[in-house]
Amino acid sequence: MKISSSLQRAGLALLCSAALTGAAQAQTAAANQPVRVGVMLPFTGTYAPLGVAIENGFKLYVQEQGGKLAGRPVEYVRLDDESDPSKAAENATRLVKRDHVDLLLGTVHSGVAMAMAKVAKDTNTLLIVPNAGADNVTGPLCAPNIFRTSFSNWQPAYAMGKVAASKGAKHVVTLTWKYAAGEESVRGFKEAFEAAGGKVDEQLTVPFPNVEFQSQLTQIAAAKPDAVYVFFAGAGAVKFVRDYAAAGLKDKIALYGPGFLTDGTLDAQGSAAQGLLTTLHYADGLTLPKDQSFRLDYAKTYKLQPDVYAVQGYDAAQLLAAGLVAVKGDMSQRDAMVHAMERAKIDSPRGAFVMSKAHNPVQDIYLRQVKGNENHLLSVAAKALADPARGCSMN
Ligand code: BEZ
Question: Of 18, 147, 238, 335, most Cβ neighbours within 10 A?
Fold first, then answer.
């Protein structure tokens, strides 16, 4: 009886250790497999250049690490989201369910990003947002598995509201594409501007991604405000800035906006953009060693100058790496990985930043002025600005 029970115990111990070894081997095997990144970005339409810059930035960081993060090669499953919110849920679900990606990376357009956040939440897939500023993503939709390496729409807009007031503007007309990003940007601007004594008299909109601005420009000329605040980006920003100058408004009514108005667009905007003031979490002339090495590497690799979108993509890869390194590449240790991402200090070309409790960068917002083909740094408009994350509860 004694012999048989000690034999049973020995057998059990052998089985357990075999099971443990098996589990450890499975983990090691998984940790050597490629990390599958579902890259959901716009590669056509008005935001296509932004999508390309984000992808370039992400891949540059991976390349700088020798093509691996925490020892794991990186594999990309690429999807053009066309900046179309109506296709977004289906596209994100396909990446998760059919292509079995380990994480979602995307996107540029706030409406598409909100749909991605819902899919990420429902399927508990890790999501890193490398641009879209939708306040909701780090507000009511916030979740432990959702991170952003860019900004909330509120952040640069709020900073510009203070700048516009400090320049003496009292009456402002706003103009934006009619969708979440533009509307939230105007709201953030208005919050700071009116708190400082200014008044937003009129809020004009055009449907996204229309670039016919003549009737709004006529309304602005008739209203004669002290300043105009606009949200446009990509090809739409190029067209708007050129039209504003061509309508003869540039030297009469100050034009303000978040820096998307002039980032990555200056070659195409030419003289129409000269002198414009914008606020953003990136600028030319930062004199940070990290920015200098990033710019050199980016220019060498892509034969292009980077912009804010490239920086955000680069930092998305840095954030992913921080999480992967902490768990030695084993993404099944999700809590430990998230914990490390929450505590990461990202050595960004924009300046180092940390994550807020809602997983959005706490960062300096710079005041920049267009000089030649640069968004030249003037000052820090808002130091270590954290998004208010209204409505975020992490549980
Ligand atoms: C957005 O939709 O959130 C967005 C798009 C382009 C630039 C900035 C924000």
Answer: 147
Q: Are residues 273 and 176 in the same domain?
A: yes
Q: Contact at 8 Å (CB) between 281 and 366?
A: yes
Per-residue pLDDT tens digits for 297-307: 999 999 999 99
CA distance 390 to 184: 12
Letter for the amino acid at 291? D
Based on the fold, state whether residues 169 and 222 are members of the same structural domain.
yes
Looking at the fold, whether 43 and 147 belong to one and the same domain comes out as yes
The model carries a pTM of 0.93
Alpha carbons 137 and 155: distance in angstroms, whole number: 14
Mutate to test the pocket of ligand 1, among 41, 54, 81, 109 (most ligand atoms within 8 A of CB): 109
Beta carbons within 10 angstroms of residue 25's beta carbon? 10
Ligand 1 pocket, mutate which of 41, 52, 114, 260 (most atoms under 8 A from CB) = 260
Q: 258 lies in which domain range?
A: 154-280
Say if CB 264 and CB 280 are below 8 A apart. Answer: no
CATH at 325:
3.40.50.2300
Number of domains in the chain: 2
* pLDDT digits 0-9 by tens, 265-299: 999 999 999 999 999 999 999 999 999 999 999 99
